[in-house]
Each structure stands twice: as structure tokens, then as C-alpha cells.
């Protein structure tokens, strides 16, 4: 991907030089989860929760152990900031073209080891994720090395771009209300039925990742799409289950098979039409 010398996002917070991922919130992740759930299911209480969280924020303490980032780490930070800037520009354009309102830009946090979020505490083992409670994408970039060495992905810079675009896709789902509707539909469902809804949500985020790539084609280089598809294949539920436990249990899928993930990414990439991303109509 052609990225050097281009605009970088101002919405990236780099905590990689901080031990434990930067700031630690008094009370830990359990309290954050409670706050998040209260705001989700009782929106009328949101102002009171916000007041409490702001008060708690004053109790944050900064980790004192810091280290200088290596030149390679600094370069990677510049790369992901450029990709994130591209998502800002493109999703602003897509929202405008489709009369979806104003695109609210998310933020991205780069961390090492562990991090505290509005959705609770998380470790690098969680992989990259989006937290709807604070509208932030969280990434430990060491994940991509494991994706290659442990799960057989091809690697390359566009594999990272694909994952960023996928997580931003979850932000888009939050803004459009899709994520909230899915959580409501999952209530009272069996585990297998709830998992199917989760799969559709994840496949739609893959579609949105492909849609972003469609709009970003002027910066793509030969082999970029193959890198994205290799990453999508590696993180398919069937590929991971086969690698980790030696057998596949489709009812337990939460993200979709390798074939599904590649299919929906390519549908977004080839079509460039957000209206064709109804994974719920096609996959349920």
C-alpha cells in the first residue's frame, strides 16, 4: 500500500511505550463493564453514569515505566495512522453520498500487553477489537506477527489495513444502530442462534472493510488484496478451530468461516455499494 508522505490521523493514541498500556482506572474493568451495560440498556441514565465516570477519571494514575519506541515501531505507528486517516476520509464520503448523516470519527489506541477500556480490561490475547462504549479501536500490533507465525497468514502491510478497516466497520455499525439491534435480537436466543447473529455482524464488518478498500484503490499496490484475503482466511472460525482444537464446530462460530469472510470482503471491494452489505438477509 502506498502510504508514505500522506496525511496521518490525529485520532491515534500510541501507548506502546507505556507499561501496562498507559492509564489504569481505579476500580478496574469490572466497573467499566457495569457502566457500559447501564448506558446500553438504560440510556436515560447515561448523564448520571457519565458524571460518575468523569469523577472516576480524576482518580486515574499514569504508569511511570516508559521506553523509547524503536524505529520500526515508530514507522508502524505512522503507517496505521495513515490507514486510519484514510478510513476517516472515506467513511465521511460514504456517509455523505448515501445520506447517512454525519460520520463521527472514532479513535484508535495502540497498546502493548494489556489495556483498560470503557468495555473493560483486555489483553493482547483478545486481538484487535472495537469498544462501542468509548468509540475506540484497540490494537496490539504484535497480533499480526502471531497471525503469520501461528495461523499462517501471508502478512504484509495491507493485512493490517484490512483488520483496521474491519474494526472501523464495527464503529460504522454502532453509528447506524446495527450493533444495538443485534444485541437486542440476541436476548432470549439460544447460544447457536445468538452466534449466527454475531457471525452476520462480523461478516458485515468484513464487507465494510472491502468497501473501504474499494474507495481506496488509488493507493493499493499489487498483492494488497491477496494479503487482506490471506488474513481474512486465517481468522475464519473454521481455520482457527481446526488449528487450535483439531475439529470444527459450526454452531460455535461467532465470526464466520474463512470462505464467508473472504466472500464478504470481496463483495464490498468489488461492488463499492454500502446497500449490498445486508449479511443478515443472506446468511441467516
CA radius of gyration:
19 Å
**How many runs of DSSP E, i.e. beta strands?**
8
Q: How big a fraction of the residues is strand?
A: 5-15%
Flag low-confidence runs. Answer: 20-44, 58-64
Query: What general form does the structure show?
Result: globular
Number of helix segments? 11
Specify the helix fraction band. 40-55%
Mean pLDDT level: 87
Class computed from helices, strands and strand pairing: alpha/beta
Largest sheet: 4 strands, mixed
Across the major sheet, the strand order is: 1-4-8-7
Distance between the termini: 35 Å
Question: Could you give a short description of this structure?
Answer:
By secondary structure, the protein is an alpha/beta fold. The protein is built from eleven helices and eight strands.
Structural write-up:
With 284 residues, the chain is of the alpha/beta class. The chain is built from 11 helices and 8 strands. The strands form 3 sheets. The protein has a 4-stranded mixed sheet with strand order 1-4-8-7, with helices on one face. It has a two-stranded antiparallel ribbon with strand order 2-3. Strands 5-6 form a two-stranded antiparallel sheet. Strand 7 (129-131) and strand 8 form a beta hairpin.
Amino acid at each position: 500500500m502506498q502510504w508514505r508522505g500522506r496525511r496521518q490521523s490525529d485520532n491515534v493514541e500510541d501507548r506502546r511505550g507505556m507499561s501496562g498500556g498507559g492509564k489504569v482506572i481505579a476500580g478496574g474493568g469490572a466497573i467499566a463493564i457495569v457502566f457500559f451495560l447501564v448506558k446500553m440498556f438504560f440510556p436515560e441514565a447515561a448523564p448520571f453514569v457519565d458524571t460518575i465516570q468523569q469523577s472516576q477519571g480524576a482518580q486515574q494514575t499514569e504508569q511511570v515505566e516508559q521506553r523509547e519506541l524503536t524505529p520500526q515501531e515508530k514507522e508502524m505507528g505512522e503507517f496505521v495512522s495513515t490507514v486510519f486517516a484514510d478510513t476517516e476520509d472515506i467513511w465521511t464520503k460514504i456517509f455523505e453520498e448515501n445520506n447517512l448523516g454525519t460520520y463521527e470519527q472514532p479513535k484508535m489506541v495502540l497498546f502493548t500487553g494489556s489495556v483498560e477500556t470503557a468495555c473493560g480490561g483486555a489483553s493482547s490475547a483478545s486481538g484487535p477489537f472495537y469498544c462501542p462504549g468509548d468509540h475506540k479501536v484497540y490494537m496490539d500490533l504484535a497480533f499480526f506477527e502471531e497471525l503469520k507465525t501461528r495461523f499462517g497468514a501471508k502478512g504484509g502491510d495491507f493485512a493490517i489495513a484490512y483488520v483496521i478497516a474491519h474494526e472501523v466497520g464495527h464503529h460504522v455499525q454502532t453509528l447506524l444502530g446495527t450493533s444495538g439491534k443485534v444485541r437486542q435480537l440476541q436476548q432470549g436466543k439460544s447460544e447457536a442462534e445468538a452466534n449466527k447473529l454475531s457471525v452476520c455482524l462480523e461478516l458485515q464488518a468484513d464487507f465494510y472493510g472491502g468497501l473501504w478498500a474499494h474507495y481506496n484503490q488509488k493507493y493499493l499496490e499489487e498483492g494488497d488484496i491477496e494479503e487482506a484475503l490471506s488474513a481474512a482466511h486465517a481468522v475464519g472460525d473454521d481455520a482457527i478451530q481446526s488449528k487450535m482444537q483439531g475439529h470444527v464446530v459450526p454452531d460455535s462460530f461467532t465470526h464466520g468461516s474463512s470462505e464467508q469472510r473472504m466472500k464478504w470482503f470481496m463483495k464490498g471491494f468489488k461492488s463499492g455499494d454500502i446497500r449490498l452489505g445486508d449479511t443478515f438477509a443472506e446468511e441467516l
